[in-house]
Write a structure and sequence with these properties.
The chain is an alpha/beta fold and 402 residues long. The chain is built from 19 helices and 6 strands.
């Protein structure tokens, strides 16, 4: 077997946990493959190395939280969460920091905000010089599937604090006054322990008090919520999440020091997400660009679902895990979905050649004809002919007419 001695060294380094030695042996294998003219195999090794470096860069660094700034007892798995007295339903669940996940992928402005918040906790002494503390309250809003809850986990894991997650089904009660009492009990529990309090589906608790569709009980609930948010400022970190920011009472916004909108990922972020969700498959950049182009405007959760379906389709079809295999799997997956508002996805689902015609005539797409050919399995001359034919035009016009 060619290069077996190097492969043995790679296995030894991996089993011994010798990362430096492992990297050195992989580089030796790459050099031998290139010398032997095995370009396809060498390209695969280079992509694996590139993916490994990217994954390491994405792993967040933990924050050493000053215990003098986070008050409270230590939560343990044996700690019993509070319950609704009438129904016995739990008012919250507790998640404990486990193995660090890779950092969420954001657009630049969102990433800067989250990184800046964590940086405040890394350097609290610098803030004390100007008589301020790190941010303790954060309101995250945006469409479903955009990574809001993942962001809360990301922050709690970096702070190495348990995440106390409010259960809306347990908090809200049909009994008069019980919801307000449950909120007070939840905050009392969170304030007792060193933790991050997560208020998901926040709009269910913090609706506008002048909403004509709501009964007088909502005023009592919101007033209780505001009072407890004020009291919690000196205790721990609070994160609220909502898909419906327009429903929130105006007074609620002032209780949070930082507001972050997380929307659908842009093309750059979508490309990074596609690479992550397709692992362990590592397609070429042209294939990744095609997938991101087809799924433009979709949430991170949508991207993950489609990429998972692509991997399942590939596995069951027995096709190669290369560009053409992924392209065909993507076309198959999109064809199964009920409808598409995005024209590129609609064309690829029904007519892959029309899709290629559309993409090659789009001046904003930075994918060369050579990369498109490698990704789709079509010849360069076929790609050129499709570009000239403008085969996509009748289908696009018909789509816009509907």
């Amino acid at each position: 077997m060619d290069h077996f001695s190097v492969i043995q060294s790679i296995i030894r380094s991996g089993l011994a946990g010798d990362q430096a030695g492992l990297g050195k042996q992989v580089q030796r294998l790459l050099a031998r493959l290139e010398k032997a003219g095995q370009e396809k195999e060498a390209a695969t090794v280079r992509r694996l190395l590139s993916s490994s470096i990217e994954t390491k860069e994405l792993k967040p660094s933990k924050v050493e939280v000053s215990r003098s700034m986070i008050h409270g007892e230590t939560l343990t798995p044996d700690t019993i969460p509070p319950i609704d007295r009438e129904t016995g339903a739990q008012l919250c669940t507790v998640e404990f920091p486990g193995a660090m996940r890779t950092a969420p992928i954001y657009e630049r402005d969102v990433k800067d905000t989250i990184d800046g918040l964590l940086d405040e906790w890394r350097h609290p002494e610098a803030l004390r010089c100007v008589d301020v503390d790190p941010t303790r309250s954060l309101l995250i809003f945006g469409p479903p599937g955009s990574g809001k809850t993942m962001t809360a986990y990301h922050i709690a894991q970096n702070l190495e604090l348990p995440l106390v997650m409010a259960r809306i089904d347990g908090l809200i009660s049909s009994f008069l006054g019980t919801t307000a009492r449950n909120i007070a009990n939840l905050f009392e529990f969170a304030n007792r322990y060193a933790c991050v309090l997560l208020l998901d589906e926040f709009d269910a608790l913090a609706k506008q008090r002048d909403d004509p569709q709501e009964i007088g009980e909502i005023k009592r609930v919101v007033n209780t919520l505001l009072q407890n948010l004020d009291l919690r400022r000196d205790h721990g970190v609070t994160i609220a999440i909502t898909n419906h920011d327009r429903l929130l009472d105006p007074a609620v916004w002032r209780r949070f020091e930082t507001h972050v909108h997380i929307g659908e990922p842009n093309l750059e972020a979508s490309t990074s997400l596609v690479k992550r969700f397709l692992l362990p498959i590592i397609p070429d950049n042209g294939t990744v660009g095609i997938i991101a182009y087809c799924l433009e405007g979709r949430s991170g959760a949508d991207l993950q679902r489609v990429c998972t379906s692509i991997k399942r389709t590939l596995a069951l079809s027995g096709a190669k895990h290369d560009g053409p295999g992924v392209f065909q799997a993507l076309s198959t997956v999109l064809a199964r979905l009920p409808s598409h508002d995005h024209v590129p996805a609609k064309l690829l689902a029904s007519d892959p050649e029309a899709f290629v015609s559309l993409m090659t005539n789009n001046s904003h797409i930075a994918i060369s004809q050579q990369d498109i050919a490698a990704a789709t399995g079509m010849s360069k001359s076929k790609i050129s002919d499709l570009k000239k034919s403008k085969r996509h035009l009748p289908l696009v016009e018909a789509s816009h007419a509907k």
